[in-house]
Amino acid sequence: MLDVSVQSGVPESTVADVLALFITDPPELSAAASALNERLQGRLRQLVEDGEIKGQLGHVALVHTRGELAAHRLALVGVGKPPKLDADSLRTAASRVVTRLRGIGGGTIAWCLDPSLDLDPTQQARSLTEGTALASFDHGRWKTIEPRPKEIEALVLVSERTDELAELEAAAHRAARTCRWTNRCRELVDAPANELTPAELASAAESIANELAGLSCEVWGPEEIRAAKMGALDAVGRGSANPPRLITVRWEPEEAPDSPVLGLVGKAITFDTGGISIKPSARMADMKTDMGGGAAVVGAMGAIAELTMPIRVVGVVPAAENMPDGHAYRPGDIIMARNGKTIEVTNTDAEGRLILADALTHCRELGATHMLDFATLTGACVVALGDFFAGLLGNDSDWVARVQAAAAASGDHAWELPLHDTYRRHIGSTFADFKNASDLRQAGPIYAASFLAEFVGEGPWAHLDIAGTAYLNRTRGDYFTGAGATGYGVRLAAELASALAAADA
Ligand code: BES
Ligand code: MN
Ligand code: ZN
Q1: What is the distance of C-alpha 166 from the center of its chain?
Q2: Once rounded to an integer, what is the mean pLDDT over residues 128-153?
Q3: Is 229 labeled as catalytic in the residue annotation?
């Protein structure tokens, strides 16, 4: 985990490989930067005049200090125009320092919190920690030829005030822990399907539960899944030589009240070929990430337990591999879900909503009062919202608003899409209660959510379609510095659990 600490003191005497400072656009030296400018004999002001220090978001000017400061180098980092400044700007600024330092040998980063920014210091501490921890992730762990980028050893947050150190430290530690679980989730999502089968995902969840006191994990195989009448999960998993699992993780701290119980559900298709309704081969490799929702739930359970949040949480992860085979389920098959409803399978590639149907029912049966699921569910959501906002839908406007608030605060952004009964006619079947896919090329994320809504039992439920946000094909130009898994959902779920615990305390 990123070693993060808070120091009170003046930037001049802070020891680090890089000492970083914010520069707003247009560039202006803050009070701290002006003091350093004196020490550096006016070189900073000169660099501003020469246009080498810029306020543009993410721009980094490195200046060697030649022994005039305790830090080896200064980084003057652009955070953009003040009206646009937000937590994401700070995350991005922090990530650029990581990238530069990793290119030149790694080491330690010290960041000066800036009281003149329009973002309170606690939020600055949190965002800088997040940007640093998330940008330090290495997606290339299977590479054996190129040397891996150098490690960031530590982050020191420098505050000139001494009265708020404990609060800053708490915010930074919390962020570092949450991001460590986010990165753990990213490892799972990046992992290829030959390594990460449903059974391997279940072992990962079990070992996380073993690491953390108070966290428990129960894993069911195909026999138990069939015995529990989870006909939908069973059908999807049947075509693979890697049999399905139902993973249930529980966090039940003694001090927590009996209610609310947060239920987190995550789609974990370890590889989605589409099944008999097979996908085209272009970009099919990306479908190793179709377990991003399940990995987010596993990571979130780790974060919630490590942060010992005073709230009951149950995580349910249905895991299966969607393969075509002589045992595979077919288009036209009619199956019965755990809640007794029948489903005509019109497309075996709409498998996510099937496994979620059984998992949502199960999660409610285990006592969840408030449910949220994460799923890489529809390509149409990627078409609609791209790679930044997840699609958010739900059956209860208060609950959706709470999820939305957690999304905005965490940096895992979400945009609400409508769920309305009128759309339900498109999931009606001639033969069964529902069909799993409509052949209309419209409103894909809404039909999928309308289907899920039939399996959530009584009570608030919300759904995040993370098809575009769980995994990036290219950089977003922010603190996710390249292609690969983002860990979407871990930060959001941790924020939501914490807010729910605080609201009901
Ligand atoms: N896993 C896919 C959705 C997906 C697509 C995720 C692209 C990430 C990137 C899902 O199982 C799927 O295949 N959905 C179908 C649904 C359709 C058959 C109704 C889709 O989006 O085409
Ligand atoms: Mn599919
Ligand atoms: Zn899928």
Answers
A1: 27
A2: 94
A3: no
